[in-house]
Amino acid sequence: MKHYEVRYLASARKDLYDLLHFLVEKESPARASDVLNQIRKLCDDLQSMPQRGHVPPELEEVGSKRFLELHFKPYRIIYQVSDPIVYIHIVCDGRRDMQSLLRTRLLSVGLNHTTEEA
Asked: Which helix (H) or strand (E) holds 72?
């Protein structure tokens, strides 16, 4: 079985940081830790099964199939497989305005993920 490296872009790291602080403030540190661990587990699983996600419907509508997503409801993880690396682009609450977020973060900017890595 092929093994992929999973890398979080700076934007995804900030997403996780913001999510963690939001959950600590609005719910509890235990809930924040649990959510973060579940999201990281999903991302870690991409090391062996990167194609397991599906194309986000908002991107499929505009003909972009370069990105896939996983869910840990209500959170969405948007990533891209670039053999042998999986780049995590976005980790967000799926109740957001996803079309604007995806347009801003994925479609309207150049997708040179190597310059955004932290």
From this structure: strand 68-72
